[in-house]
């Protein structure tokens, strides 16, 4: 696609999204009171999906009243306590903001602040950088895509799928050629995801591949990469499997969730259905250490069937 | 495209209940499916349980007052399997449970272990009053009702010899209690009292009643006894037991927190209340106080304020529970070696990390030492399960320290080469298993996770299923009370 065309489509989408936010539905307006920076398209989309403020149950309000008036009988308060216990159990079952109470037609201040905080964390995750320490500890070097800055990264996914000319040369020089497994790390849409989880996922994956005696190439870090960048890397280094550990688009539940995208012999023109992903790797999701161990066994399966994604599922059954 | 997710695996399960008065069996088929999407980390769960066969209700064959007729029980099982069209090697999971007074017979232990070995590929032997109550609550529907409504539901399973109470609130076990209350505690023959069980004898003496063996079954004291049993039941359920009530208590007093909202009766005596079985499963066969006891319970003033929920099953609650509710499925990312499976009758040693790695590390060694002292004092190589709970968020480095500590612990075992069995509550088995393997590649390790033990000190682990998970049964093995 042409540059201008992409730019104008992106503009249209952003305008459309902004238009769709007049205070028609009060809850929507509450959430998306536009942040300072125009929100990235993808993140805004997520906001719309995630809006979920469950009206509080009658009982919880009664309980409040009762606490202040203390006029009810003892058995009443016991009942309410039990209800509250049940609500608490439900809350434990999901990270969604359920049974959080309300003040009139609005969320309570705490809920609201928490929401703003989570939203800010999501924005920060996209705009943040992975600290040099983390990468140094892992002993990986950094290369770049054709993207110049974050704004461009968001507007031009296609450029995040190509290495800069210099980077192409660097990986050709510095990386083992044709390894069985090539691991690539990228901040993607959440630098925080990499910071928080990479060490555990990586060390555990490394151990797992070691145990299975599967040879691992030279791991490197790509700044501002996209998933499909693995195709070009596959062309250059010709590994059997690429594992791309990349920051997921942050949500309001977690801004530090990492994904592992995998593909058997990725090359230019590979179809999306041949990729596969283990997502939701973070503290509150799949424990990073366990995810790394599990990835090893998936690689084993990919190698056995010489296929990934939908083709793997087909060959397996 | 045939997706991974839609593939269903089936498992045949047997439940065998050898109770004080009756013995019965069920065969069911479980369907397992990966509930996570095609390329997600798999999550295997039992999605359906279909009951294929229910045996008639047999009288438990006895050789004498203190011995079970093992050959006769074996014959029942064999002929019922035949009628159901299954062979024992097709049975992949399930439980044989010996319940009520039968668990106190001389050869009770031998009986369950014998059946466990011969009546199925992976059939678990179980016994113990608390477990009976729990299994019955699951078979009667009481557990399900508590989960559905969030209410506190007491299941009272009254068989021939004991009443086993299990209280569930919102699907969580809050407590258990067992009483010497049952239909067969006084037996009649030719309109006369044929036998009175020891706990009832004690009650009679305590109250200064006079009834004795040989008296007419219409002796007024008989009614006093059944009424008294009903009153004790009411007192236990409301946790207001008196000193005099204690003669009928077996084991610990009620310990659940909060009040009971709903009561569900299951077991043989419940059949006298609800008559859910077919006509020809006649009750008159049991010439005992069962019917009297049922009517006393129905009239007991102290039980009227509860919601009475009709059970899904009466006499068969325990056998259905044993056949359909004892099998747990492990997490899908685990580290196991099929050559080391199944593992049976392993005592469980829990090590709570109290949400701190350092605490867990500090406790591991002493817990293992203690476990060896308790379960393998003679150094004969009785293996056990190390059950690690309340684990905090773990970094890779923490996993490594835990693994190193575990290996040091393994060396303490009289037979360090026997499989090292580690069960985790949280989703960490794969990485811990792999780390142990990396440190000691030659040693055999069984590391499974996502198992919650609500009650019971023993565990059986079955063979790896096609979906890569293992069936796990948690139970007790208590024979004398
Ligand atoms: C954004 C998104 C999409 C967008 C991607 C748009 C784009 N071109 O960037 C759209 C709407 C197209 C999409 C489609 C699908 N998605 Co999607 N998607 C996400 C989301 C919310 C964020 C992904 C992300 O941050 N990627 C990182 C950035 C840096 O990658 P990127 O290079 O910018 O974009 C690529 C990836 O996002 C990738 N991708 C997106 N989804 C999927 C799903 C699979 C199975 C694969 C292999 C790749 C993939 O395709 C993009 C283009 O190459 C995740 C949620 C999550 N927790 O991760 C779900 C998620 C990854 N998607 C999921 C699914 C199931 C799908 C679909 C299969 C849905 C369907 N039934 O059609 C398709 C498959 C798309 C494909 N490429 O094969 C699941 C995957 C579950 C799993 N473990 O298998 C997730 C985890 C959501 C969930 N919780 O269920 N998705």
Can you lay out the helices and strands and say which pair or pack?
The complex is a heterodimer of chains A (317) and B (481).
Chain A (H helix, E strand, L loop, with lengths): L2 H17 L6 H7 L8 H10 L7 H12 L4 H20 L15 H19 L4 H7 L2 E4 L5 H6 L9 H10 L6 E6 L4 H21 L8 E4 L5 H9 L3 E7 L10 E7 L10 E7 L6 H18 L3 H8 L1
Chain B lengths: L7 E11 L3 E13 L9 E11 L3 E2 L2 E3 L2 E2 L1 H15 L8 E6 L9 H11 L5 E4 L1 H12 L1 H8 L2 E7 L4 E7 L2 E8 L6 E4 L2 E5 L1 H10 L12 H18 L11 E2 L11 E5 L1 H7 L15 H10 L7 E3 L7 H8 L2 E3 L13 E10 L4 H19 L9 E5 L6 H15 L9 E5 L4 H11 L5 E4 L9 E4 L9 E5 L6
Parallel strand pairs in B: 1-7, 7-8, 9-15, 15-16, 18-19, 19-20, 20-21
Antiparallel strand pairs in B: 1-2, 2-3, 2-4, 5-6, 9-10, 10-11, 11-14, 12-13, 17-23, 18-22, 22-23
The structure holds cobalamin.
Subcellular location (chain A): Bacterial microcompartment
InterPro entries (chain A): EutC (IPR009246), EutC_C (IPR042251), EutC_N (IPR042255)
Function (chain A): Catalyzes the deamination of various vicinal amino-alcohols to oxo compounds. Allows this organism to utilize ethanolamine as the sole source of nitrogen and carbon in the presence of external vitamin B12.
What attributes characterize this protein structure?
heterodimer, A: 317 residues, alpha/beta, Rossmann fold, 13 helices, B: 481 residues, Nucleotidyltransferase, domain 5, 3 domains, seven-stranded mixed beta sheet, six-stranded mixed beta sheet, 12 helices, 27% strand, globular, binds cobalamin, cobalamin binding (chain A), cobalt (chain A)
Question: How would you portray this structure in words?
Answer:
The complex is a heterodimer of chains A (317) and B (481). In chain A, helix 10 (191-211) links the parallel strand 2 (181-186) and strand 3. Chain A is built from 13 helices and six strands. Chain A has 317 residues and is α/β, with parallel strands linked by helices. The longest helix of chain A is centred in the middle third of the chain and has 21 residues, at 191-211. In chain A, helix 10 crosses helix 12 (288-305). Chain A has helices at residues 3-19, 26-32, 41-50, 58-69, 74-93, 109-127, 132-138, 150-155, 165-174, 191-211, 229-237, 288-305, 309-316, and strands at 141-144, 181-186, 220-223, 241-247, 258-264, 275-281. Chain A has a domain at 130-316: Ethanolamine ammonia-lyase light chain (EutC) (Rossmann fold). Chain A has a six-stranded mixed beta sheet, sandwiched between helices. Chain B folds into three domains: 2-127 and 322-328, Nucleotidyltransferase, domain 5 (2-Layer Sandwich); 142-311, Nucleotidyltransferase, domain 5; 331-450, no CATH class. Chain B has helices at residues 70-84, 108-118, 129-140, 142-149, 198-207, 220-237, 268-274, 290-299, 317-324, 357-375, 396-410, 429-439, and strands spanning 8-18, 22-34, 44-54, 58-59, 62-64, 67-68, 93-98, 124-127, 152-158, 163-169, 172-179, 186-189, 192-196, 249-250, 262-266, 307-309, 327-329, 343-352, 385-389, 420-424, 445-448, 458-461, 471-475. Chain B has a seven-stranded mixed beta sheet with strand order 17-23-22-18-19-20-21. In chain B, strands 1, 2, 3, 4, 7 and 8 form a six-stranded mixed beta sheet that branches. In chain B, strands 14-11-10-9-15-16 form a six-stranded mixed beta sheet, with helices on both faces. Chain B has twelve helices and 23 strands. In chain B, helix 10 runs parallel beside helix 11 (396-410). By secondary structure, chain B is of the alpha/beta class. The A-B interface holds A 82, 86, 89, 199-200, 203-204, 207-208, 210-211, 276-279, 283, 286-294, 296-297, 309-310, 313-314, 316-317 and B 1-4, 7, 38-41, 150, 170, 258, 333, 393-396, 399, 426-431, 433-435, 437-438, 441. Bound molecules: cobalamin. Cobalamin sits between chains A (157, 188-189, 226-228, 246, 248-249, 257, 259, 272, 275-277, 279-280) and B (37, 39-40). Chain A: Belongs to the EutC family. Chain A: It comes from Pseudobacillus wudalianchiensis. Chain A: It is found in: Bacterial microcompartment.
């Amino acid at each position: 696609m042409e540059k201008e065309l992409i730019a104008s489509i992106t503009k249209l989408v952003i305008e459309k999204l902004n238009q769709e936010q007049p205070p028609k539905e009060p809850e929507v307006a509450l959430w998306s009171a536009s942040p300072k920076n125009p929100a990235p398209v993808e993140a805004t989309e997520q906001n719309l999906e995630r809006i979920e403020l469950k009206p509080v149950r009658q009982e919880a309000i009664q309980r409040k009243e009762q606490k202040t008036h203390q006029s009810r009988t003892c058995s009443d308060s016991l009942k309410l306590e039990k209800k509250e216990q049940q609500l608490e159990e439900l809350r434990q079952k999901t990270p969604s903001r359920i049974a959080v109470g309300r003040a009139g037609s609005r969320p309570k201040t705490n809920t609201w602040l928490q929401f703003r905080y989570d939203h800010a964390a999501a924005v920060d995750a996209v705009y943040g950088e992975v600290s040099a320490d983390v990468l140094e500890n892992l002993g990986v070097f950094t290369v770049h895509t054709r993207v110049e800055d974050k704004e461009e990264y968001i507007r031009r996914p296609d450029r995040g799928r190509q290495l800069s000319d210099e980077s192409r040369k660097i990986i050709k020089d510095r990386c083992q050629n044709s390894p069985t497994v090539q691991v690539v790390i990228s901040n993607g849409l959440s630098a925080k995801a990499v910071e928080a989880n990479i060490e555990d996922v990586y060390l555990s994956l490394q151990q797992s591949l070691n145990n299975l005696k599967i040879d691992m190439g030279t791991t490197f870090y790509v700044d501002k990469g996209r998933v499909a960048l693995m195709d070009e890397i596959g062309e250059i280094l010709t590994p059997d499997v690429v594992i791309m550990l990349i920051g997921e688009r942050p949500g309001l539940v977690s801004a530090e969730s990492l994904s592992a995208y995998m593909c058997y012999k990725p090359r230019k023109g590979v179809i999306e259905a041949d990729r596969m992903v283990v997502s939701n790797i973070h503290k509150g999701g799949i424990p990073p250490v366990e995810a790394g161990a599990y990835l090893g066994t998936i690689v084993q399966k990919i190698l056995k069937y010489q296929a990934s994604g939908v083709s793997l599922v087909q060959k397996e059954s | 495209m045939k997706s991974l997710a839609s593939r269903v695996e089936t498992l045949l399960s047997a439940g065998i209940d050898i109770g004080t008065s009756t013995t019965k069996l069920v065969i069911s088929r479980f369907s397992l499916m990966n509930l996570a999407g095609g390329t997600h980390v798999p999550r295997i769960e039992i999605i359906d349980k279909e009951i294929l066969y229910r045996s008639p209700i047999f009288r438990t064959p006895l050789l004498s007052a203190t011995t079970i007729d093992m050959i006769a029980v074996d014959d029942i099982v064999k002929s019922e399997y035949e009628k159901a069209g299954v062979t024992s090697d097709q049975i992949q999971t399930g439980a044989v449970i010996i319940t009520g007074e039968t668990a106190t017979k001389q050869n009770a232990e031998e009986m369950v272990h014998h059946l466990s070995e011969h009546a199925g590929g992976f059939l678990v032997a179980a016994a113990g009053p608390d477990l009976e109550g729990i299994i019955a609550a699951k078979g009667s529907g009481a557990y399900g009702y508590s989960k559905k409504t969030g209410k506190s539901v007491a299941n009272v399973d009254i068989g021939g010899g004991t009443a086993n109470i299990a209280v569930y609130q919102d699907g969580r076990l809050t407590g258990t209690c067992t009483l010497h209350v049952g239909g067969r505690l006084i037996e009649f023959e030719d309109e006369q009292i044929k036998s009175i069980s020891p706990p009832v004898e004690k009650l009679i003496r305590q109250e200064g009643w006079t009834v004795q063996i040989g008296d007419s079954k219409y002796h007024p004291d008989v009614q006093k006894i059944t009424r008294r049993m009903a009153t004790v039941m009411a007192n236990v359920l409301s946790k207001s037991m008196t000193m005099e009530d204690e003669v009928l208590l077996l084991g610990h007093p009620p310990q659940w927190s909060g009040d009971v909202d709903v009561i569900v009766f299951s077991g043989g005596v419940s059949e006298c209340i609800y008559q859910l079985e077919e006509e020809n499963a006649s009750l008159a066969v049991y010439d005992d106080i069962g019917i009297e006891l049922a009517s006393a319970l129905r009239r007991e003033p102290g039980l009227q304020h509860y919601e009475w929920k009709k059970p899904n099953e009466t006499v068969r609650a325990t056998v259905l529970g044993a056949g359909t509710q004892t099998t747990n499925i492990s997490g899908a990312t685990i580290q196991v070696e099929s050559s080391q499976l199944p593992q049976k009758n392993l005592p469980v040693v829990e090590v709570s990390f109290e949400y701190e790695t350092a605490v867990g590390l500090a406790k591991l060694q002493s817990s293992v030492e203690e476990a060896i002292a308790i379960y393998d004092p003679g150094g004969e190589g009785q293996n056990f399960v190390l059950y690690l709970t309340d684990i905090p968020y773990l970094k890779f480095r923490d996993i490594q320290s835990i693994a190193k500590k575990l290996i040091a612990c393994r060396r303490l075992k009289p037979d360090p080469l026997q499989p090292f069995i580690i069960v985790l509550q949280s989703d960490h088995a794969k990485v811990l298993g792999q780390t142990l393997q990396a440190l000691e590649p030659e040693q055999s390790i069984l590391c499974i996770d996502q198992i919650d033990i609500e009650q019971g000190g023993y565990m059986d682990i079955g063979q790896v299923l096609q979906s890569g998970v293992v069936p796990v049964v948690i139970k007790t093995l208590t024979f004398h009370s």
